[in-house]
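Q: what does this look like with 2'-O-acetyl adenosine-5-diphosphoribose bound?
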Amino acid sequence: MSQAISDRETALQHARELLQTCDKIVCFSGAGLSAESGISTFRDSDENALWSRYDPTQLASPEGFAADPKLVIDWYNWRRRIIADAAPNAAHQALAARSDIVQVTQNVDDLLERAGCKPEAVFHLHGHITHDRCHQRCGFQQKVDLANPPDLRSCPMCDAPLRPAVVWFGESLPQWAWQQSEQHCLAADCLLVIGTSASVYPAAGLIQLTKAQGGKVLVINTQASGASALADMELIGPCGEWLPALLS
Ligand code: OAD
């Protein structure tokens, strides 16, 4: 056996032992979870990362939407079509096979649900690209066809513009998802931190919550991240390779 393989096996063994001592496991995921499904991350060493190609203030803020709503809707519809064509990868499937693991995700896609996670067991901190909602929050929300998303249109209830039901910079997180996530992370014996740069707050603060009450933090990422300093263990590499081996 090569040195590299034996190191990997040792790391895997240690990570498995860590999980075996834990009753409550929570997974906190980010864009890296869906990367192996062909969905671009936001920040990465990869040149395809969205925020190295596009301006978040123009495309993911209320100000950007006010300045050019059609540009914003067209950009989200481009992403929607990519997600429509994507399929859950081995990491989504490994997580979905463990219904005892609570899913807290920053991802707006529905790949965890398509892999088999119950929708009510996935807390989407940054909303759902699968839905439109009224920008003025009159209460109107509607599921959209990701493969054929609607162009810029008005709310049928109040005539304000409709927009993707995602969280933009400067907006609050959905209250229910945030409260549930805080409670689960506070009670976690182990937080799996998967494919996130852990650089966007308040979501990234969940890692400190688990750590501060004595829970373990196990990070899986292709590179060092904002979670590295808090990690009890860090597995470097694609989560589609590590998670099936770790959770089976
Ligand atoms: P980022 O794009 O900031 O980080 C993705 C992380 O995934 C990076 O640390 C990569 O190294 C890692 N990664 C890439 N491929 C991977 C793989 N196959 N396996 C494991 N790790 C991999 O994404 P997030 O942390 O999710 O917000 O970003 C947080 C938020 O910033 C997003 O939800 C989005 C963005 O602006 C909103 O849209 C509100």
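DSSP finds eleven helices and nine strands in the chain. The CA atoms of residues 134 and 159 lie 9 Å apart.
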